[in-house]
Amino acid sequence: MSQHPEEGESSVNDETRAIEEVINAFMYYGKFGTEKILKTIQQMKLFSSSIDMISFFRNYPQDFQILVVNKNKEFVESMKQRIEHNHSILKMIANSASGMIGENHTKAFRIHQARRPTGEFLSKVLSTIRQICREWSSEGLPEREATFKPIIEELNSIFPTETERHNIRILVPGCGLGRLAHDLIEQGYTVQGNEFSYFMLFTSFFILNCCKEVDTFFEKPRVNFLFQVDQFTIYPYLFDKSNCWKSEDRLRGVTFPDKTLISSVTNRPNSFSMCAGDFLEIVKDTQFDAIVTAWFIDTANDIFKYIDAIYDALPENGIWINVGPLTWHFEDIAGEMSIELPYSDIMLRIRQKGFEIVSEKEIDSKYTVNRLSMLQNQFNCAYFYARKGGQKPQ
Amino acid sequence: MSQHPEEGESSVNDETRAIEEVINAFMYYGKFGTEKILKTIQQMKLFSSSIDMISFFRNYPQDFQILVVNKNKEFVESMKQRIEHNHSILKMIANSASGMIGENHTKAFRIHQARRPTGEFLSKVLSTIRQICREWSSEGLPEREATFKPIIEELNSIFPTETERHNIRILVPGCGLGRLAHDLIEQGYTVQGNEFSYFMLFTSFFILNCCKEVDTFFEKPRVNFLFQVDQFTIYPYLFDKSNCWKSEDRLRGVTFPDKTLISSVTNRPNSFSMCAGDFLEIVKDTQFDAIVTAWFIDTANDIFKYIDAIYDALPENGIWINVGPLTWHFEDIAGEMSIELPYSDIMLRIRQKGFEIVSEKEIDSKYTVNRLSMLQNQFNCAYFYARKGGQKPQ
């Protein structure tokens, strides 16, 4: 467990503390990066002292010695610049969250005490950066085409008339940085995104809304600010030391967003809302025409509860589209309940619950992969389209 | 750190302790498996108590209720049997090691006190089982074809006359369970395998030699015992709860060895030796005609030392063939030196050292993958064939 900051006032509640922990993790990135660089330099020194540098370099022509030394200096300098740059982006994200959580944000900053976050939280900061690439850069296009596109196409074939789609309410649980939700809005649907992680919520808020929130989150407010395509750059691969073909691969930047955001277009008949919190809580007493679970169902402690909640939140003939692997998030996590069922048992339960499986297929997709790495994690995802009640689809 | 057993006698040295730790890990497998099953049962109970079982099952026809209950019972029973079976194989491996390390084995068993191994050691037992599949079952054929076959073909095209190959001495560092070394023997070369891990050494000894060691390691000695193709079965996927399509996938067995072992053929002109220990130590003052590093160079604390050692152990025009990714084993391991260079910097150093790169390519390969899992780790491996001294190959 990470240490809690001192309680500043009696009104500091658990949520404020949770927010402060996330903000602390975002804000620590610069220092984390510096630690990483220092470690590399120390290792190089360890290496230098472990051998006789003079005899080592005797093998090289003098030009080469200068090249190696300069190349390393240049590389470290490039790393530093990019770490600072990433840090400034993460700071913007942490600051912009005020537009989303208001008073809690102010309180969190008031009690904030800079400290080293847990390894888990640091790794969440790094994966947030990777998630920006996956969802909002052209680098992530192959991953989005693999699993988001089939969902959108399926829905569009069910609802072919675009002008009527604003009546179709779709829920996207675990929507991450909101790209799938956003692209469904673009197709005309009325969409509610749902997300539990503040790392994702703050970052999606920054990407989706900051153009409307110009006065609050920039240190120097800019009027009429609008996101432009590829306006921002982020460096997601700086610390990918293993499985690297060449140093330059680690330095490359990725621009985002890769398209003009729909939030900059006003007067649409359909609406977009984002709901923070636990999926099982937010679906209570709410109805949707379709629920789209992409890379989501394996976040369940108890998959049966997810199935029940989805069933309850759909009307007769309501649509459930799912895609993703089953990398159970709570497997082997101490103190957490976790039912790691195989796909076939889940489908058995889904059918028994009262869904008809209209179609089922397998889709291969990567997830937040560095395409230049020697390691490429590939998922063989389960995709299905189901209807509540087993009536034939319209 | 795992606890050390009490010192039984003054002659118990570090090596005996190290061996005892590995034997303890092998011997703990059965208990580890039982722990895993108990956890699953507890989780199912937690699940049962968290909902009203009667209303839960009301949704199901009675036949189905019986099916579910029986199916689970049957599954747990199948798991238990297979865990016991794996345990008996691992016990055979631990026992057979006496033929390899003699007195140290006896001492290790004398001081042995059964206890829970570290997580790292338990995970090494599980990966040893996966390694058996990779190297010695037909399940591992695609992985061996991907990276072992190109090496063998390269060598055979350099040394086309099989009857002369016994004069060619090849070193295979980090040879794991010895399959690549074995297959090179089969082609007629004289081969020395080298391995540091006792998990690998004990298991390769069992596979490669136990047919010659029948009197010492079986509890009931069997005379004239010889390994037959597919004689043994092992269950490598029992604990793959995530990314599983159906329960039966976890239960499936893999048979080994997938071929008649060359060690059962006598009177060959070429010889096979296996050398336990640190690669950097064992290559000192030894010469080989070729060194084959497959999935090995990223085990280095200091890759420069590996390059120097390979250079020193080869004659002018000597051959170095390498294949594998760069998943640096000591990255982020506290207290360990680690230089995580990208491939291009390694190649720069190799050329500077005095190798000519004859050919270079990329090879895609998986590594100890469960082919029925939703997760398929794919490596984009670097392959090169180099010659010491930069003379054109013959």
Automatic annotation (TrEMBL), chains A, B:
Protein name: carnosine N-methyltransferase
GO MF terms held by the record: carnosine N-methyltransferase activity
GO CC term, one of those recorded: nucleus
Gene Ontology BP, a term: methylation
Pfam family, one: CARME
Natural source organism: Caenorhabditis remanei
Keywords of this entry: Methyltransferase, S-adenosyl-L-methionine, Transferase
UniProt cross-references to InterPro entries, sorted A to Z: CARME (IPR012901), SAM-dependent_MTases_sf (IPR029063)
Domain of life where this protein originates: Eukaryota
